[in-house]
Amino acid sequence: MHALALLAAGVTVTGAIMVITRRVAVHAVLYLVVTLLALSVVLVLLGASFAAMLEVIIYAGAIMVLFVFVIMMLNLGQPDSQREKEWLHPRAWLGPGILATIVCTELLYCATPLSGPVRLPLPITVHDVGLSLFSRYVLMVELVSFLLLAGLVTAFHIGRHREGGH
Amino acid sequence: MTYPAILTIILTPVVLLGLATVLTWVERRLLGLWQDRHGPDRVGPGGMLQAVADGTKILFKQDWVPPFADRGVFVAAPAIGMMTVLLSFAAIPVTTRAGIAGDMNVGLLFILGMMGLGVYSVVLAGWSSNSKYALLGGMRAAAQMISYEVFMGLSLLGVVMMAGSFSLRDIVAAQAGLWFIVPQCLGFGVFMLAGIAETHRLPFDLPEGENELGAGFHTEYSGMKFGMFFISEYAGIVLVSCLVTTLYLGGWRGPWLPAGVWFALKTCCVVVFFILLRAGLPRPRYDQLMALGWKVLLPLSLFNVMATGTILMLRASL
Q: With 70 as the cut, is the pLDDT of residue A50 above it?
């Protein structure tokens, strides 16, 4: 199981790197989908299968499809790929590179026995998630739903057909 | 992992692909019957070998990738569609014991997730073909399938609330007294419509409506790549029929006959109903389809969730 988790984590990281370096927008989005799927595998192996399925349904299955949809509407072409290429010059890599190295070192430290024995978490069932969402974190849930409602109202307002047409 | 489990995993896709191939012949014969035509009746007894003949022909056709297409994505698109459909079957319990992962505690969500990923097949096929009709078909498919996924998920909530579990085997077990089609008739109706839209079958096959889009998202596909779209569509019909059987028709439950036979019988009935819908109904306009979804099915499925919740709470408090 440990090996499977490491493999999935490796795919996640590789996918994420590919997302940044691809020049064709759709290819980048596809790598992002692969990253999300690999991440959901990690979640399953950690015992959080409900969260993993939500990751697949909502992020990979809905939000990313909308990304592809928008990119299809924009009809990007060769000039856009060229511009992407110009943005990715070596100096732009410096800052993110340093930060990523710090995180990677931390991660490696956690993965080695130096940080103490690894405790496998208990599997989390849908019941557990539901109970904690609507008891302990109910305020958060309400706040998030306010935010979503606001987003919905805004989208409706922007997309509304006005009288006299503009 | 035990030896029989591995055998099941290998055999399931083989059987499913065979079923989907036979289904292409069954559909054409039934359409012929209902529309007072012959249908394919020349190859083999009753035309049964027509599917084999079609398969052979399509395998020997030139496997052509248009020079203007995005090659990698163009090749991957039909494979994605096929894989997501076949993977979904893993969570379907055929009997109390048969099936690959019928006990999975998030089985229903797994299937919804795989259906969500199936959208990529159509959308990417449309985008990578780099042609107008394919692109329009792909965009229609994206909007249609994402919308109908919402109603599909919402219509299933009632079933999940009544069974108290996302595991499909638990859901069948909860239908011991009464099939869910009776208390969840509203959810059943919404699920059927969403299922047709999700598999983009006639009458909701607007992403490939040939009267306005050529062949829609698979206009540029030929040979076995087109064959894979074709077969995964039929596998999708079998999948939705299996889901209807499991969620609303009591799965393997039934008197006298063995469990597996009941499951197969019920699934066959739903498949034939799907074909009957194709034979009987005209295709709506695209905006009508979307309006039906958001203005009728969404309120209906929300009402279903509310009513089911209220009744369950009242019953619990009594």
A: yes
What angle (nearest 5°) sits at the alpha carbon of residue A149, between those of residues A147 and A155?
Answer: 105
Question: Cβ contacts (< 8 Å) between B145 and chain A: which residues?
Answer: 65
Q: B313 is written with which tokens?
A: 């709470």
pLDDT digits (tens, 9 = 90+) for A124-144: 888 888 888 889 899 999 999
Residue in chain A closest to B149 (alpha carbons) equals A62
Evaluate whether residue B43 is within a structural domain.
Answer: no
Structural domain range at position B244 = 64-317
Residues of B in contact with A125 (CB under 8 A): 105
Looking at the complex, does the CB of residue A33 fall below 8 Å from at least one CB of chain B?
yes
* DSSP annotation string for B133-153: HHHHHHHHHHHHHHHHHHHHH
For residue B100, give every residue at least 6 positions away whose Cβ sits within 8 Å of its Cβ, in sequence order, or none.
B5, B8, B9, B12, B89, B90, B91
The number of domains in chain B is 1
Average pLDDT, chain B: 86
CB contact under 8 Å between B123 and A72, yes or no, is yes
Rounded CA gap, B263 and B93, in Å? 9
Q: Are B78 and B235 in contact (CB under 8 A)?
A: no
A153 burial class (0-12, 13-18, 19+ CB within 10 angstroms)?
exposed
Q: Do A73 and B139 touch (CB under 8 A)?
A: yes
Per DSSP, helices labelled H in chain A are 2-21, 25-45, 49-54, 64-74, 78-87, 94-111, 126-134, 138-159
User: Which CATH fold topology does A2-124 show?
Assistant: Four Helix Bundle (Hemerythrin (Met), subunit A) (1.20.120)
Query: Cis omega before residue A113 (within 30°)?
Result: no
Rounded Cα gap, residues B6 and A150, in angstroms: 50
Please answer yes or no on whether A62 and B116 come within 8 Å at the CB atom: yes
pLDDT tens digits, one per residue of B176-225: 888 888 888 899 999 999 998 888 887 887 777 777 777 778 888 888 88
Sole residue written with tokens 């990979």: A60
| Tokens encoding B194 | 């969403």
Whether A114 has a pLDDT exceeding 70, the answer reads no
Q: Which residues contact A86 (CB under 8 A, 6 or more apart)?
A: none
Listed in sequence order, the residues at least 6 apart from A75 whose beta carbon sits closer than 8 Å to its beta carbon are: none
Residue B267: its H or E element: helix B259-280
Residue B303: is its pLDDT beyond 90? yes
| Cα Rg of chain A, angstroms | 21
The string of pLDDT tens digits covering residues B92-146 is: 888 777 777 777 788 899 999 999 898 888 888 888 888 888 888 888 888 888 8
Which chain A residue lies closest to B121 (C-alpha atoms)?
A: A65
Whole-number pLDDT of residue B225: 87
